[in-house]
Write a structure and sequence with these properties.
Layout: H1 3-7, H2 12-31, E1 35-38, E2 49-52, H3 54-70, H4 78-81, H5 83-95, H6 97-106, H7 122-128, E3 135-136, E4 139-140, H8 141-166, H9 172-190, H10 199-202, H11 208-221, H12 224-231, H13 238-267, E5 280-281, E6 285-286, H14 297-310, H15 322-346, H16 348-356
Helix pairs in contact: 2-5, 5-11, 8-9, 8-11, 9-12, 9-14, 13-14, 14-15, 15-16
Length: 366
């Protein structure tokens, strides 16, 4: 039997790692002090409240792993050495979404969070989900899964970093990639409450698309650059390093700035934007700051960040650029979905907003 095939078969060790990881996140998320953030008001007038303590949970887990490694209880390189096993085991966990689908179809709860939206199309309902905010033992699963994916991405990267240090192959490219990802992930958890106002949380039902995206796609494809650098040495010029840092900085400022402006506007529609009162279309749509430059300007920041994660790998192979290319396709598809939904929801107000802000993502190009 082919060795690569064997390495892709989930082992009890890989299943144990995942179960331990999910169990830790469930316990830490429930017990560690948290900022309780109210979600958006749903159609029935109810609001979920989210425990935002991801940063503390992540730092505590990093501390526990560091102590465990120092005491010889575990290996920091285990993830990098069992990557394919963990990938297939996580994929298996994602298919357990079938149990959620079955439970959702049988639900008699009529609240906005748990009311089943069944179209009768099995594939559609399984892929997009039938419930908006299912929970398990009081834990909101949608919020839990995205936290798992983002944290999983970090610990995959750190394990890859530990492997390069162990093998004495640490390069400037790896340091640059790790630094950018670490800043991005720390920023995500520092502003974790902003996630509660994103489209995925407020509007997408929990189907296989979100579960697979959070548990498999985010941690294992966003870390492709690290895996690639583990087996390929890249020497960057000083000019390339400076240019890479510039792309990351611009991407970060646009991404974080746009999301902060949107979040602040939703909390307080009169909050100043760049020192001025916000320009609002129809009393609903923000047309100031980044949102007066492009209708989906946060996507531009996200794309620049994704590109900055890949640039440390040089241009000798297209493999490290899988993530930004995929993200470009995804965000254009998502932007088209957003545009159609907003046109239906806001009607004439959306027409006026499009007139004021004609560009979709990149001003003067798209």
């Amino acid at each position: 039997m082919d060795l690569d095939y064997l390495l892709a078969i989930p082992s009890w060790n890989s299943v144990g790692i995942l179960v331990t990881f999910f169990t830790y996140l469930a316990i830490a998320g429930s017990l560690i002090p948290a900022k309780l953030v109210p979600g958006v008001t749903l159609q029935d007038g109810s609001r979920l409240h989210y425990r935002c303590n991801g940063l503390l949970s992540m730092l505590l887990l990093a501390l526990l792993l560091g102590v465990g490694a120092k005491m010889g209880l575990l290996s920091l390189t285990v993830i990098s050495e069992r990557g394919l096993e963990l990938l297939s085991a996580t994929l298996f966990f994602s298919f357990l979404r079938l149990a959620l689908y079955a439970a959702g179809c049988k639900s008699r709860n009529q609240s906005s969070s748990l009311k089943p939206y069944v179209t009768g199309n099995l594939i559609h309902d399984w892929w997009f989900g039938v419930q908006l905010n299912p929970s398990f033992l009081g834990i909101d699963l949608k919020f839990f899964f995205v936290r798992s994916g983002m944290m999983g991405w970090l610990f995959i990267n750190l394990s890859v970093l530990a492997k390069t240090i162990q093998s004495a192959t640490l390069s400037h490219s790896m340091i640059l990639y790790q630094m950018f990802c670490l800043i991005y992930i720390l920023d995500y958890f520092f502003y974790e409450e902003y996630m509660t106002s994103t489209w995925d949380i407020i509007a997408e039902r929990l189907g296989f698309m979100l579960v697979f995206g959070d548990l498999v796609w985010i941690p294992f494809t966003f870390s492709i650059q690290g895996w690639w650098l583990l087996g390929n040495k890249v020497e960057l010029t000083t000019a390339a390093v400076i240019a890479n840092c510039f792309v990351f900085l611009i991407g970060y400022l646009v991404f974080r700035g746009a999301n902060k402006q949107k979040h602040d506007f939703k909390k307080n529609p009169k909050a100043l934007i760049w020192g001025k009162p916000p320009k609002v279309v129809g009393g609903k749509l923000l047309a100031s700051g980044y949102w007066g430059i492009a209708r989906h300007c946060n996507y531009l920041g996200d794309l620049l960040l994704a590109l900055s994660f890949s640039l440390p790998c040089g241009i000798s192979s297209p493999v490290p650029y899988f993530y930004p290319i995929y993200l470009l396709i995804l965000l254009i598809w998502r932007e088209r979905r957003d545009e159609a939904r907003c046109a239906e929801k806001y009607k004439e107000v959306w027409v006026e907003y499009r007139r004021l802000v004609p560009w979709r993502i990149l001003p003067y190009f798209y």
